[in-house]
Prior knowledge:
single chain; alpha/beta; Spore Coat Polysaccharide Biosynthesis Protein SpsA, Chain A; 2 domains; 5-stranded mixed beta sheet; 9 helices; 22% strand; globular
Amino acid sequence: MPKIGIVISNYNGWRDTRVCLESLRHQTFRDFEVILLDDASTDDSVQQLGGMLDDNVVFLPQTRNQGFAAINNLGIRRALADGADWVMLLNNDTACAPDMLETLLRQTPPDGVSCPKMLFMDPPDEIWFAGGTLDRKTGKVVHLGGHAKDGPDFSRKKQVGFITFCCVLLPRKVIEAVGYLDESLFMYCEDVDYCIRLTDAGVPMWYLPDAVLHHKAGGTAGGMLSVYYITRNTLTLRCRGRSAAFRRLAGILAALKGGLCCLAAAALGHHKGRSYGEWRGAVDFLKGRTGRMPAP
């Protein structure tokens, strides 16, 4: 029975995934199973990854693209079905220090969730994430230490209000109590939603800097698409439980802001860029759309 089930999703990124898997081969803690999912990549990821699997890797290529939340839920369910006591969600564009798993397991309280210190791959001494804060009124999060040089200020174990799901360690009993990722969000902000639910359930979140990984960063989608999902999903979380009037006002104001930016960008010859994503995200929020972004 694996103690940790490590869930990694790949979409057209087999080169990054290969680096991540290689870093897991060198872990000092060995009692883990990797649940590797391919989210219907359109390149040769399935063929490339299929040729480099170890005995402790379960490879689950999908024929339909499901989005970050759904594909990770599939991996979580498989890890729990295989008997894992802990589940780690891990971005494919990361590389783990050899003692990362061992350190997280040793320092994470049994009733809490945790994350390591996350540094950029380039430059490798620069902070990408050293814990985070979350403003529930706006749905906005802040990455502490972003782009600062690593040092003593980021070397203290502490409770935080937000953990990015680039890398998060979740005990089985927390998942069973809090549930799975919200698939209606499709991608982006699912970690914000989950951290709100963790807080409501009284589950502490820990930043453990003795555990380290490096993150390539850059975004799975990027550009217009990421802005679309972040805009729509942040509005969804911000307005959850609020009145219909509040939802309409928040959506209209966001749509107006995005629309004005979109017009300004169009005047400069830029069409369907990030400002279009902001406008479209707000409009689709007002329409109550969830899941994958509909075609224009």
